[in-house]
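=== Structure Prediction Worksheet ===
Name of assembly: unnamed complex
Input type: mixed (protein and possibly other molecules)
Chain count: three
Listed entries:
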Amino acid sequence: MPDPTTTNLWHPIAACADTPVGTPQRTTLLDTPITYTLHGEGHATAASSSMLPVLIRYGYIWTSLGTPTADLFDIPEYAEPDRRRFNAASVSVHVSAPRAVENFLDMSHFPFVHTGILGAEPHTEVKEYDVETSAERDEVLATRCRFFQPQPSTAADQGAEVEYVYRVPHPNCAVLYKSSVIDENRRDVIGIFVQPVSQERVRAHMLVCVLDDRSDDATIKRFQQTVFGQDKPILENQFPKRLPLDPRAESPVRADRVSIAYRRWLAAKGITYGVIPAA
Amino acid sequence: MSAHAWHPIAAARDLPPRHVFHAKLLGQELAVWRADDGYVNVWENRCLHRGVRLSIGLNEGQELKCQYHGWRYASRTAGCTYIPAHPEGAPARRIANRIFPVIERHGLVWSALETPPDDLQTSLPPDPLVLREIAIDAPAAIVEPLLAAYDPPGHGPRPIFFIQPTDSESCVIRGVIPEPPPTDTLALLRLHDAALCALRDLAEQRPAA
Amino acid sequence: MITFYEDALCENCYAVRLLLHMLAVPYTSHFVELYPSRANLQPWFRAITPLAELPVIDDDGVIIAGAAPILVYLAAKHASGTWYATDTPALAQVTHFLTLAERLSATAGAARRHESGFAPTDLSAAHAGATRVLRGLDAHLWFAEQQSQAWLCPTPHPTVADLACFPHVILCEEGGTSRQPYPALRRWCDRVKRLPGFLVMPGVFLTAPPKT
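=== Predicted Assembly ===
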């Protein structure tokens, strides 16, 4: 069995929009085969060897192999009616969930992996940003992140310096908030909700919750799929596949402050699934 | 198969300029690349920043650039010379990828997991005819006896064979012909290639000991 | 103006996209998502092409479906002296590799679709089949290099044979098929990436520019 923290979490197992109503579906969560059925608006069931708790949130079916003690994290922006909200993609990746989350939190790779879209040389500098681990909210937060992007989103037709906030409210979920090109007072919200199929395999579900009055759904999806499709081969060429929690195992620099905080946070939670615990 | 022994891990011609060769020795993945000055680098196939394979990186002639964050590592020392996220500061001199010993000789590239006590000992001439390498999904222990019984097709000169142990389940046969006849080397290469492929098929059908 | 029905993650579409860019032939994209929505199975697309598979081009009313036919059509129309065959032996050679590309799709491609969660397959059979084809390609390219040839066919210029096979080779690791045992194939991939007009797709990295 995975560690208690991991076992008692809510985990995403499917996007509702990709799930035929009334037909049992199969997936795997934490090495455990799961059968689930979407019965209609807002109602689903799931079982492994016994019935499991289920909730539907942000357009996804979530379940747990244990007993979640808290509600799922909140994304207030999801309730705003003028946003484009959907699952951009559910992608299988041969890597651990924490590696996938850490990649989502990283800006330094933008000019090299997402060239011409989220970054471009010579604008490679990652300026100082702030990191906070909040015990009260039980999350890691990176604020005041700034990066120059040639094509920040489908709503943009030119490059801009974009402000990011990264939030990790769950060991396998991260949410980023980036300045909207449509309304400078609001932010686009993009989430990665990682389903740990096994310690070294995941299904990454990408939530889009953005302001865009010009692109159709397919265009926005393709943009996100292109970006994540560029990350996938990097993640699959990363070793070890499990995230090492020992600070001496890899060589972070100042730009990696949020990932250092994330690894410490996972260690403090006693997580052993998908990671290599510190010696 | 000793970690302190020299093993061939590539042919010299496997390392054209601006290419990164992906090798494996005794379970250790290696990124092998020739700098523009001819120097052959054998490094652990893992950028020590976040563990991404250097074999998907870019050989820019004097430096190897990691595909993930663009970190640059100098030929010979494997020291990190540039971190794009922090373009102003010089990287700490102690950030260096793990390097392995290398000898380029007899048309082959040799390395070891631990620096061998002695120089490479072979009776090979400087420039033999190097056969195409044959990668086999069978352990070296299965291949060894088959290779010992190898009958050179067409009664030609017998190659000298080396078995590179890539990991516990696979190996690579690297053959060289010390004194090839001066004509029709292509035909000779094809003849041995066909025979070695048949040997490979035999080895792969054998159950492991 | 060509209308190109394509999917952003499909290997066979990538082969056509490469040739369109390398020939600098203008086209309009019409994206048709293969997975997970299977938009290619919708009636409007079946009306264009009964097999309902990608890629498809509509060249001012001439509809052609399938990577190999499209590659041959475009090369013959725009660049037969280079990208296609100019004599009968060459015709056979190009065709040999176009059919090999289909075998790669059925093996390495099937493994990739399985590991992506799109379409289940017998993974070990797919890997075994991919290994057979990749070994053959690697040996072929090694002997080509021995004769100072850079491409799949013994021509000074790459042909549609190279573009048909390249996407399946360069994306095979997403299906769990490693390229590490195929050094000649890996060098050939670098050469393809350096061709003028080359472009990447998700899963494909650029290589270093050549030494000048």
